[in-house]
Amino acid sequence: MTGPVLSLDKATIRFGGLVAVNNVSFDLQRGDLFGLIGPNGAGKTTCFNLITGVYKPTSGSIKFKGQEIGGLPPAKICTLGVCRTFQNIRLFPALSVLENVVVGAFLRKSTSLFSAFAYLPPAIAETGRLREEAMALLEVVNLAEVASSRSADLSYGKQRRLEIARAMATRPELILLDEPAAGMNPQEKEELQTTVRRIRDEFDKTVLLIEHDMRFVMGLCERIVVLDHGEEIAQGPPEAIRNDPKVIEAYLGEAV
Ligand SMILES: Nc1ncnc2c1ncn2[C@@H]1O[C@H](COP(=O)(O)OP(=O)(O)OP(=O)(O)O)[C@@H](O)[C@H]1O
Ligand SMILES: [Mg+2]
Which ligand 1 atom sits nearest the alpha carbon of residue 47? Predict the structure, then answer.
């Protein structure tokens, strides 16, 4: 297929008097590794919420592979091939690491995370295939050795990687990562960069990620869009973003 995987055209959402995302437009081509950055409250997570159907745009368009998805229910958008991780980690703490990933596989068909959860026990007993698939994804995020641990017992950084594996289990074409490196130490961040590159290169995914760690974003993403107060203030490759006076003033403070 040609044409963008994801296309935002003047996407806008208002919450009362606040325009949290204001006329934001950008396109992701297949295989892009794209960054979304900006100061706290800029509207980054709200963009993810628009793309994944948590909120319906007040105006503007959001297309996935040419199909309008703005305002569709989240479960429908997930089934179409868009999946995400959350800024505030959302795992099933009492389930094992492996089971959390298996739940993701059920999201392909289910209407919600909770109905996926309800299907889990008999299904996991029945099928070795899902376990195998989940184990393969745990290898990718370096969690295979803790597959049977309770997810609540993992470090914060590992829980973030587990969320990525769960999102991958839905077999998305487009994966959205909301601050995947938050709370990670420098070594974990480096490993995560490798993991995200693998997800794009070996699994053929398109990746859109939000991150405040500029070293991480600039070292990983090939294109970046910058939001400030809901508005897009710059878009381009890392070198251009790093030296853009508007971005430096609104966010970076000084050239990085
Ligand atoms: N459901 C909502 N109702 C009202 N205001 C909201 C809602 N969701 C987000 N906002 C507001 O929209 C603005 C953008 O929030 P958002 O969470 O998208 O920022 P962000 O760029 O992700 O910031 P951070 O880097 O801190 O995560 C903020 O002012 C926030 O308070
Ligand atoms: Mg956010």
Answer: 18
Q: What is the pLDDT of residue 107?
A: 72
The residue whose CA is least distant from atom 12 of ligand 1 is: 20
For residue range 169-214, what is the model confidence (pLDDT) as tens digits?
Answer: 999 999 999 999 998 999 999 999 999 999 999 999 999 999 999 9
> Would you say residue 125 has pLDDT above 50?
no
Topology adopted by domain 1-81+172-182+193-256: Rossmann fold (3.40.50)
Instruction: Determine the distance separating the centroid of ligand 2 and the alpha carbon of 237, expressed in angstroms.
Output: 22
DSSP string, 48-109: HHHHTTSS--SEEEEEETTEE-TT--HHHHHHHTEEE--SS----TTSBHHHHHHHHHHHTT
Name the pTM for this structure: 0.91
Task: Tell the residue nearest (CA) to atom 30 of ligand 1.
Answer: 41
Burial class (CB in 10 A: 0-12, 13-18, 19+), 108: middle
> 69 CB under 6 A from ligand 1?
no
Q: What is the C-alpha R_g of the chain? A: 18
Please classify residue 39 by burial: count the beta carbons closer than 10 Å to its beta carbon, then call 0-12 exposed, 13-18 middle and 19+ buried: middle
Every domain of the chain and the residues it spans: 1-81+172-182+193-256, 88-167
Nearest CA residue ID for atom 17, ligand 1? 45
Residue 56 near residue 229, CB atoms below 8 Å: no
What pLDDT was estimated at residue 118?
60
